[in-house]
């Protein structure tokens, strides 16, 4: 072991580190070197591990396990050709050593040949007395191959071997989630909890599965059990707060988020959620207070700046809203929702050119919502660019061919761009498709609606249908 029961370095490690500080050379058993090297590797001290390997091989040049640890470091540092040559030599000496196959598999994995890595790991399984680590490696290789079913099976074997292997447990649930088998994940976790009723990690994961499929009371119960199992489990308190929000219990949600702050240092995400809860309760000043605490805690959390933006947008303080949405965009300029909010603010301020640009960014980044096309076309139309509105509405109709609102808007835009024949055709099509939306056209184009052009078409269609 690397440490004794008092948490102090074991004698071989202390002796080795003492040796490094002097010019003396001490002798160690090969097994001692293995413990020393594993200790340094596990603690990320690669340079010390390499020193121990070098000295160990000087004292025990035929020690296969030390040479395999040398290979492990070489693979880690991507010295793959050297590692393979050593493995070739070792295989001649000990062809039944599963670690040789494991390290070859690691090399293939580094080369993105995951199928070959899997074959070698299966060969290692046939030789190994303890297969726990190999199943974990297999699980990772299958993840690289996007074979989530096989990955899940192998990680399940790890959990069956050691039910405190929470890394593998997380990977099992990750596979269930990727396969969208939430019911399967719930059944698996419930079976696990029958054997481990006080496992806070499993209760936490179970709560997240229930939350995903909208079973909020069950999720709340699971998070409560996670907290009972470990009353310092911050993640469970945070997730519990999210469930309480969904249930409309905002004051209880605030208490849950405040507990996370009391247990550990405050987080921007907790402040943000508390602010959202106060907003839902109508406590506008408290909401603003916590939104500002959010960005003070983490100035790079763009969602915090967005929350402040929305606060000022609700209060029609568009200048401040614009200032803060630009903060969010500066952090994440690839977010289409931020650009859309920016466009709405510019439109409210009458900055039509800027609104036009922001809507273009919104669409270029992949936001194709019906509202986006409608708002964008309205902006360019108000900017006296009906031809541009026509092109925007035609684009929108490619995504929403059944959207009568876009058809009505296109009819008006065509008329404004001096294309009366095409406008008439679109207007007739719109009315025949959904005459009840005429009120929408009236609100969008009141002057056109009350004109002889529109009224005559409406009258003709009504007569034809009688």
TrEMBL record:
TPR repeat windows: 98-131, 132-165, 234-267, 302-335
Pfam families assigned: TPR_6 (PF13174), TPR_8 (PF13181)
InterPro entries per record: TPR-like_helical_dom_sf, TPR_rpt
Keywords recorded for this protein, A-Z: TPR repeat
Protein name as it appears in the record: Tfp pilus assembly protein PilF
